[in-house]
Amino acid sequence: MLQKPRGTRDFLPDEMERRRLIERRMREAARRWGYREVCTPDFEHLELFTMKSGEGIIQEMYVFEDKGGRQMTLRPEVTAAVLRMYVNEGKVLPKPIRWCYFADCFRYERPQKGRYRQFWQFGVELIGADTASADAEAIMLADDTLRSTGVTFDLHVGHLAPMKHILSDLAPGDQRAIMACLDKHDQEGLTAALAGRNLTHLTEPLAALSECRTVPEVFEIAGDVPERARIEETFALLDSLNIDYRPDFGIARGLDYYTGMVFEAFAKNLGAENQILGGGTYRLAHLFGGDDVASCGFAIGFDRVMVSIGNFELAHEPVVGVVCTPDARARALEVARAFREAGVRAEADLMQRGMGAQLSHAAKTADFAVVLGKREVEAGTVTLKDLHSGEQKERSLEDAIAEVVRHGAC
């Protein structure tokens, strides 16, 4: 028996309905802020991602050569693809551009709870606004979107400028190595990286920066960094809207293209693998042949959100099973269509079962049975049976539909 590929999943109807419900909530949250959905190809030229993240990312990707000899890859994330689309299609659009997406991504990594080889991201990109207000909007939208799902989370907000200011005398390669350790919260690796470069004097300020819980504390440690006014304005805007967040200037983010404000969110019930959102300000478009436009955005790990939420009861919508004698089949299809046109899910018998077997099957899958025999066809009526109470009554089709619809509204 063939099995699904490792790191992928099959979703049965109940789970798909839960996922679609949460998707709709996230899309609706973004819509209210003026973000419109875009879609990019499932596969892109490999260079799109290596230009951004380096050749080392290839081992984590599904890379293949197409029939024209071009190096292609299934997308491992969506931000680069959206900025490529901006360069190709959107440079002349009025700014700021507010786009959102929901897409599946692919990474070749070790599967574990909440981490799969095929996974889904919901994300937002705000392109062309280089202000504290834009930074604050991205954070507030991230908070609003996560709250719409029902997940419980902690939101951390920081800025790279103080950390980069402390590391400003270092060579770019040394900065990246140290920030990579900070991003992974790898204290042992950080200690080794600093000691190996004779930079142990930075241990204390970096540790203190990570422990800061107010903006003034940050500047006591890092000094008067050039971006101070922007940082103070961004945090003041968040405070004015009573956003529940924790200042965290130890956030490094593992990607070189982040330029300033950064933020992350962590589900409260997922253990070690609990990050469900990451984002910040960045510049990417110039790498793909576009202008050096400021951008800000975030991506939500949809699968981890669903794991955190867990199973929940779906709102029940009544189901009608249409039961008929052989000579009433044509009328049964008309009746089923009338229920569907009224927004009611209706299922007709396809197995040519007898009336008793049809009723027995309907009792397993439906809330009501609509029974059609010779009498009902001749009278233009239906017999509506409540499969939970057993109560049944012959009535007009319109009255039967109205009763089922009322039942669904209760």
UniProtKB/TrEMBL annotation:
Q: Which Pfam families match?
A: HGTP_anticodon (PF03129), tRNA-synt_His (PF13393)
> Which residues hold L-histidine?
77-79, 107, 121, 125, 253, 257-258
Q: Which GO terms describe its molecular function?
A: ATP binding; histidine-tRNA ligase activity
Keywords, A to Z? Aminoacyl-tRNA synthetase, ATP-binding, Cytoplasm, Ligase, Nucleotide-binding, Protein biosynthesis
Which parts of the sequence belong to the Aminoacyl-transfer RNA synthetases class-II family profile domain? Answer: 6-318
Q: What biological processes does GO assign it?
A: histidyl-tRNA aminoacylation
- State the reactions this protein catalyses: tRNA(His) + L-histidine + ATP = L-histidyl-tRNA(His) + AMP + diphosphate + H(+)
**Top EC class per UniProt?**
ligase
GO CC terms of this entry: cytoplasm
Q: Which InterPro entries match?
A: aa-tRNA-synth_II (IPR006195), aa-tRNA-synth_II/BPL/LPL (IPR045864), Anticodon-bd (IPR004154), Anticodon-bd_dom_sf (IPR036621), His-tRNA-ligase (IPR015807), HisRS-like_core (IPR041715), HisRS/HisZ (IPR004516), HisRS_anticodon (IPR033656)
- Gene3D superfamilies per the record? Anticodon-binding domain, Bira Bifunctional Protein, Domain 2
Query: What's its EC?
Result: 6.1.1.21
Q: Where in the cell is it found?
A: Cytoplasm
Family recorded in the similarity comment:
Belongs to the class-II aminoacyl-tRNA synthetase family.
This chain's protein is named: Histidine--tRNA ligase
- Naturally occurring in which organism (per UniProt): Methanoculleus oceani
